[in-house]
Amino acid sequence: MTQNNDEIEEQTVTQEESADQPKKATRTKPREIKHPFQTDPNKPPELQAPQKFEQGLVSVYYGNGKGKTSSAIGVAVRASGHGLRVLFTQFLKGDERYGEHHFFREEGHIHVQKFGPAWFLDMNNITEEEKQLSRDGLKFVREAMLSGKYDVIIMDEINVAVGWKAIPVAEVVQLLKERPANVELVLTGRYAPKELKDLADYVTEFKEEKHPYKDKGILAREGIDY
What we know:
Layout: H1 5-20, E1 58-62, H2 68-81, E2 86-91, H3 99-107, E3 110-115, H4 128-147, E4 152-156, H5 158-163, H6 169-178, E5 184-188, H7 194-199, E6 202-205, H8 212-216
Parallel strand pairs: 1-5, 1-6, 2-3, 2-4, 4-5
């Protein structure tokens, strides 16, 4: 079959226009991760019996938003509910107003240890006595972590203790490097230096979008905020 001149010219122009167009980027197909208990890809995985706790990881909760300590409390309660041995330590907090202290004391299965004064600290003027409380806390955590007595250890507000120069970041880094493989660590607090985030397995930033104190002048409420 022969082509006339118009068809040949149209075909030539089409080829030239096609050559001038940038090539489309090829999209790489995402790697499929098959869940061992998800027999139907269109349905969620089937619930299985709890597995023995063998692999511990490191979590860092930081940022200016509310919920960091609350999340750590949730981890402690969940772990204890599955029979794991939990140590909940709090840095810079030494008073008795926090509701979690009362709950853990009555619950009896979560060991709580506080390393802070009964007064509110001035971040711009931390005394040596106040710094020593945080250092004592870090020493206590290290000994507990290496003792084999605990599966999960929460270090609430330790990021703030580092940020306020009460504890050298290098000492916390060393603690993370000494962590036994079967111990889970959770570090909370507004500030989180890169050195700690680099060593963590979970890093979650809590970012404030709204706050009732700023918007409505509502102060912290007992039972909700502490």
